[in-house]
């Protein structure tokens, strides 16, 4: 290392390209495979709703993952369900990012009573449990679209991210380089978007990954209770039909194991990605 | 003291917000819940004017009264403990139905959450202390369990320990045929046997979060200067780990309790549904399936207020164990 490197040019938080560790690699590959399956799978399989004579047969040559009680192909259902669940995850991820970034970053940067108000609303949303509220709202609406479910999930799920973002923005706001930018006469929006936001990128990414996991889990729980979007195919609805078709009592493991396993796999992959992001933000965690 | 008042004030506002959400939601939603509910009540028996009045106070009325006076009626109903009549459990009142199912849920979730917290914090302390050991390498596996949906884990446990090896019963809260509820050894044993799988589900799914949080805080705390000082003073390892490192590393876990409690409650509702556990989650689903709006709103209110209360307790506990927040 050259000793003459002046300290002043080193930025507060340097954005490095994430090193491809084992965790990150495994996470990306697993998430990629599941995403690819949801993206391409539906074009390669039969109609998931088509009924056939071969009801409740185990995995075999005709049906790679067996059939449901009414003879629908489990693999075909799984492909469409993956697409459905991932769609909900992506929509909620984007909506949560917008909501939490707006209230967390903008509120903390504005300061004063705006911040107080935003943080009060955030904290209230945080202590009101989400799923009961989602269940109550869904039960009033008879015809639920995927968008409605996603909207309700993001409305009840943005608060945690907003609080984390607020904390970081508050600490960044008082860093010397931000004060310097202000003194130099930069406009407020420029300070926010050019000076502060880039340093929040790893944190934002971690929050989005979290939001996607919880959206997919939340949607699965809701659909499992029969309160998901009407006429949709997701991992949750598959489990709902498996439960109602007595798959458990009849020992039809090929019906209820794959959707949950895929969900767990995808969730674990996203967690691994989050681990790696955490290690980028907080180098102490690297072992 | 000011801090304490601020906290109490926040929980008052949050409680008010929860009560108001409970007031607004049925009035904001499409359809006419009051008519549906009254029609269903009519099928079960004659609807007294008092029952009609209490349902209208809780869910809204078509009589064109101002929202403000409706709000007054609603608050009056709540203050007198009148949550309306249940359809699904006719002719029981919403209050009595909740009163019967709440102890089951509090027992199950409370015990499972405490066990999971203690287990997670304990293992997290060890994993952080011996960073890079075999225990530390197990952490990714436990967080994988975290992304397993509660109800799916419940289904798998049920399949394995209920159907394949019938060790535990398939559903219910106790053996309804052979034991009668009461503080008898038989009943308690039966409740424990029936509660094992649901509790196991909650513990397995939630322990990873505590474990990871504690481990990461331990790692952060171990790098602090006072740990070096403690080592230089020649303190014993056990004392350094427990009263120096873990004592400080546990604080964020306690203050993060609020966020996780919401998830635990959500997961428990679905878990109860899988096991047909006689708790409040199963009742909530019954009420949803039979359009029993009064019961549904009542349960939402009770769950929310219970979570608020638990958070308040943990918050107060936090200011006891962290003197810095007691300013």
Can you tell me the residue ranges of chain B where pLDDT is under 50 for at least 5 consecutive residues?
Answer: none
What oligomeric state is this? heterodimer
State mean pLDDT of chain B (0 to 100 scale). 81
Give the number of helices of chain A: 10
So how many helices of chain B?
A: 14
Name the pair of protein chains with the most residues at their interface, and give those residue counts: A-B, 54 and 63 residues
Report the β-strand fraction of chain B as a percent range: under 5%
**Which outline of chain B best applies?**
globular
Strand-pairing-aware structural class of chain B: mainly alpha
Strand content of chain A: under 5%
Biggest beta sheet attributes of chain B: none
Termini distance of chain B? 8 Å
Mean pLDDT of chain A: 79
- Could you give the distance between the termini of chain A? 23 Å
Basic shape of chain A: elongated
Topology order of chain B in helix (H) and strand (E) letters: HHHHHHHHHHHHHH
The biggest beta sheet of chain A, please? Answer: none
Protein architecture, described:
The complex is a heterodimer of chains A (287) and B (327). Chain A is an all-alpha fold and 287 residues long. Chain A is built from ten helices and no strands. Chain A is elongated and about 75 Å long. Chain B has 327 residues and is mostly helical. Chain B contains 14 helices and no strands. In chain B, helix 3 (49-59) crosses helix 4. Chain B is globular, with a radius of gyration of 24 Å. The interface between A and B is large, with 54 and 63 residues.
Layout: helices, strands, pairs:
The complex is a heterodimer of chains A (287) and B (327).
Chain A (H helix, E strand, L loop, with lengths): L21 H23 L29 H37 L1 H16 L2 H11 L5 H12 L1 H15 L2 H8 L4 H37 L10 H10 L8 H29 L6
Chain B lengths: L1 H27 L4 H12 L4 H11 L7 H13 L14 H36 L4 H4 L1 H8 L3 H15 L20 H38 L2 H8 L4 H19 L1 H19 L4 H10 L3 H29 L6
């Amino acid at each position: 290392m050259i000793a003459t490197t002046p300290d002043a040019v080193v930025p507060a938080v340097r954005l490095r390209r994430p090193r491809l560790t084992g965790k990150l690699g495994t996470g990306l590959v697993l998430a990629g495979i599941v995403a690819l399956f949801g993206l391409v799978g539906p074009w390669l399989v039969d109609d998931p709703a088509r009924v056939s004579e071969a009801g409740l047969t185990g995995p075999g040559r005709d049906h790679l993952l067996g059939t449901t009680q009414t003879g629908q192909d489990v693999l075909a259902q799984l492909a469409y369900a993956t697409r459905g669940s991932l769609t909900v995850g992506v929509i909620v991820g984007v909506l949560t990012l917008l909501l939490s970034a707006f209230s967390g970053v903008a509120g903390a940067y504005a300061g004063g009573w705006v911040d107080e108000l935003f943080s009060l609303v955030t904290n209230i949303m945080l202590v009101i449990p989400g799923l009961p509220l989602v269940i109550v709202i869904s039960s009033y609406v008879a015809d639920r679209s995927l968008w409605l479910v996603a909207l309700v999930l993001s409305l009840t799920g943005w608060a945690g991210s907003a609080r984390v973002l607020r904390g970081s923005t508050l600490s960044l706001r008082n860093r010397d380089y931000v004060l310097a930018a202000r003194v130099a006469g930069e406009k407020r929006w420029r300070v926010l978007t050019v000076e502060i936001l880039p340093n929040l990128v790893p944190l934002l990414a971690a929050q989005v990954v979290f939001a996607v996991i919880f959206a997919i889990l939340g949607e699965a729980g809701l659909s499992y209770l029969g309160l998901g979007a009407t006429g949709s195919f997701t991992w949750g609805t598959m489990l709902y039909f498996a439960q109602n078709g007595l798959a458990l009592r009849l020992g039809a493991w090929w019906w209820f194991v794959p959707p949950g396993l895929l969900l767990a796999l995808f969730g674990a992959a996203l967690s691994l990605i989050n681990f790696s992001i955490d290690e980028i933000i907080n180098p102490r965690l690297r072992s | 003291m000011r801090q304490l008042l601020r906290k109490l004030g926040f929980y008052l506002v949050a409680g008010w917000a929860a009560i108001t959400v409970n007031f607004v939601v049925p009035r904001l939603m499409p359809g006419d819940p009051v008519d549906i509910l009254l029609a269903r009540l009519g099928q079960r028996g004659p609807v007294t004017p008092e029952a009609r009045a209490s349902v209208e106070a809780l869910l809204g009325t078509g009589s064109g009264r101002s929202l403000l006076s409706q709000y007054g009626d609603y608050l009056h109903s709540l203050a007198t403990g009148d949550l309306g009549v249940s359809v699904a459990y006719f002719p029981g009142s919403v209050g009595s139905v909740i009163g019967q199912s709440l102890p089951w849920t509090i027992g199950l979730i409370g015990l499972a959450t405490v066990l999971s917290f203690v287990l997670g914090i304990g293992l997290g302390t060890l994993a952080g202390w011996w960073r890079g050991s075999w225990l530390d390498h197990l952490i990714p596996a436990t967080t994988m369990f975290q992304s397993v949906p509660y109800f799916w884990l419940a289904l798998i446990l049920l399949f394995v320990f209920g159907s394949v090896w019938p060790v535990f019963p398939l559903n219910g809260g106790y053996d309804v045929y052979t034991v009668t509820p009461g503080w008898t050894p038989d009943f308690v044993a039966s409740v424990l046997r029936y509660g094992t799988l649901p509790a196991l589900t909650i513990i397995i799914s939630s322990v990873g979060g505590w474990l990871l949080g504690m481990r990461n805080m331990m790692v952060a705390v171990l790098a602090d200067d006072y740990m070096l000082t403690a080592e230089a003073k020649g303190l014993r390892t056990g004392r350094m780990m427990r009263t120096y490192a873990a004592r400080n590393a546990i604080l964020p876990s306690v203050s993060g309790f609020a966020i996780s409690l919401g998830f635990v409650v959500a997961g428990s509702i679905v878990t109860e549904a899988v096991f047909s556990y006689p708790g409040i989650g199963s009742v909530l689903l019954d009420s949803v399936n039979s359009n029993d709006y009064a019961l549904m709103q009542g349960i939402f209110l009770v769950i929310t207020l219970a979570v608020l209360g638990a958070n308040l307790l943990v918050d107060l506990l936090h200011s006891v164990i962290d003197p810095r927040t007691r300013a």
